[in-house]
Amino acid sequence: MAVGVVSVFMVVGGIVIMNIMLAVVTERTREIGIRKSLGARRRDILNQYLVESAVLAGAGGLIGVGTAWLIAVAVRSFTSMPMSLPASSIAIGVGLSSVVGCSSHLSGAQASKLDRSKP
User: Collapsing DSSP states into helix, strand and coil, what is residue 27?
Assistant: First the structure.
């Protein structure tokens, strides 16, 4: 059951990141045009948006892990239930969220194809 819930959250997170990246690309079309006119290659622009989406997703993963840790500490202090957050879970959570971010940078790939030479 937990895998199903996490899968749904990852899909929703990927959609949110795609929408954010689409908004970023829409706002930065002029910047992309200037960078391309100054000699930036398609790969440079693609890498910029790939790194941005990975950092955004990784930060979200760290916030999620921090929230889970705080909840575990609160439950442990108010009840006699043993709670722990293994380091492998932290690595998997942040890594998985970064992978979702990297795979949802499709709008950045569209940005690298923009042709600002036409009015």
Answer: helix
Closest by CA to 19, choosing from 100, 104, 111, is 104
Long-range contacts of 89-94 (CB under 8 A, 24+ apart): 89/65, 90/65, 93/61, 93/64, 93/65, 93/68, 94/58, 94/61, 94/62, 94/65
The pTM score is 0.67
* Rounded distance between C-alpha atoms, residue 41 and residue 28, angstroms: 16
> pLDDT (tens digit, 9 = 90+) per residue, 57-95?
778 878 888 888 888 888 888 888 877 778 887 788 777
| Helical packing angle, 42-78 and 29-37, nearest 10° | 140
Two tokens, residue 13? 């997170």
Note whether 119 and 30 are within 8 A (CB): no
The DSSP code for 79 is S
Which residue is listed with tokens 């959250």? 9
Rounded Cα–Cα distance for residues 63 and 101 (Å): 15
Token readout for 79 is: 């009840």
